[in-house]
Design a protein that fits this description.
The complex is a heterodimer of chains A (250) and B (123). Chain A has 8 helices and 8 strands. Chain A is an alpha/beta fold and 250 residues long. Chain A has a single domain, classed as Rossmann fold, CATH 3.40.50. In chain A, helix 7 links the parallel strand 7 and strand 8. Helices cover 28% and strands 33% of the residues of chain B. In chain B, helix 1 packs across helix 2. Classes of the chains: A alpha/beta (250), B alpha+beta (123). At the A-B interface, strand 1, helix 1, helix 6 and helix 7 of A face helix 1, strand 5 and strand 6 of B.
């Protein structure tokens, strides 16, 4: 017997992600899902960014790792609430773990949440966490070919930070090739050239976050939900994004 | 290697669907995967085998149907096939486009058979 189903394979995750999105919207919280390879600078970026936003935003961090609390210890020094999410082996965060993390925070006292995903640029792109926007970080030492090699992530993000710009002279990073590959995958994402070492570009990025928080920039969630029973493939909702000054665009 | 994560979600989805078919044994499942998902069909099939091992789904086959990616240019309205994940219009070269298909990840159908012993006790 053949049973017709047609359901989104990631439905269990995506349903919880939708609930998280509703919960965050009800509390007026902006959530940024930070995705990069291990060592690209996610935690360093937070260490640079959060002090710039302190005073204007009540920030909290969900810190995703396979093991250890080393990253959350670094964030704790900033004096903001942080919850360590340990996946115990999984290479990405999933919505149920994020939901458990949110239960540890007082959501009435937060208006900006960073979710630092597990260092990986393949799997995290697949799992909706209920975030406002996904942001990618690529460091110049990883090479200019990463957008072409990991297109899913680079297609999904609302902003990309090219980090470790201070090391650019010591690498063979082909900026033009990178720019061309990235724009073929993602026409609209904001783009920032930064260095967590020298603080270059961090202010522009913090500025962009403020525009996301005020709702001036709007992103449609990539839920990949194709639960239409007639089997008609629905058009993909491409994020509707705008740009403002300070965002480096080509 | 995100195929294993996806295979585990797939097993969860199938087991949920099978709850409305007690006493049924899964013979095969069909999934539809858009090429933009970057899922290697043979790898997903092997991961499915690993994820079902020691579960009631053990031995079931996974069939993967791939869907090509296409997009519509926002500038000149041309519908074009997306090659190599490049959303560049083949007519006007603009990179702003709306994705039409290619990011599917759907469980399409299940082929099941009744377990004879259980079926007879149910009358």
């Amino acid at each position: 017997m053949n049973v017709k189903i047609l359901r989104n394979v990631l439905e269990a995750n995506d349903q919880i992600a939708s609930r998280i999105r509703e919960q965050l919207a009800a509390k007026h919280i902006t959530a940024i899902n930070l995705i990069s390879s291990p060592g690209a600078g996610k935690t360093s970026l937070l260490e640079q960014t959060i002090p710039l936003l302190n005073g204007r935003y009540h920030t909290a961090v969900l810190e995703g790792d396979i093991a250890t609390t080393r990253d959350s210890e670094r964030i704790e020094k900033l004096g903001i609430p942080v919850v360590q999410l340990l996946t115990g082996g999984a290479c990405h965060l999933e919505a149920p773990l994020v939901q458990r993390g949110l239960a540890e925070l007082n959501l009435d006292e937060i208006d900006l949440l960073f979710i630092e995903n597990v260092g990986n640029i393949a799997c995290p792109a697949e799992f909706d966490l209920g975030e406002t926007v996904k942001v990618g970080i690529l460091s110049v030492t990883e090479g200019h070919d990463k957008p072409a090699k990991y297109p899913l992530l680079f297609h999904e993000i609302g902003a990309l930070l090219l980090n470790k710009m201070d090391l650019m002279p010591y690498t063979n990073f082909d900026f033009e090739r990178f720019r061309c590959d990235f724009r073929r995958l993602n026409h609209d994402a904001a783009f920032f050239q930064v260095s967590c070492k020298t603080s270059v570009g961090i202010e522009e990025w913090a500025h962009w976050i403020e525009h996301v928080c005020t709702g001036e920039l709007h992103f449609e969630p990539h839920t990949h939900s194709h639960d239409d029973l007639a089997g008609i493939i629905q058009p993909h909702q491409h994020p509707h994004r705008q740009h403002h000054e300070g965002v480096v665009r080509e | 290697m995100h195929e294993l994560s996806i295979a585990e979600e797939l097993v969860r989805a199938i087991r949920e669907e099978l709850r409305s078919h007690p006493n049924a044994r899964l013979k095969s499942a069909l999934v539809r995967v858009g090429v933009l998902r970057l899922i290697e069909p043979a790898t997903l099939e092997r991961c499915f085998e690993a994820a079902t091992w020691d579960t009631p789904l053990a031995g079931a086959q996974l069939h993967v149907e791939q869907v090509k990616a296409s997009a519509r240019c926002r500038k000149c309205d041309l519908e074009f096939t997306v090659e190599h994940h490049w959303f560049e219009c083949s007519r006007c070269g603009d990179t702003g486009s709306e994705l039409l298909r290619g990011d599917e990840l759907q469980l399409v159908s299940l082929e099941i058979e009744r377990e004879m012993a259980s079926a007879s006790t149910n009358g």
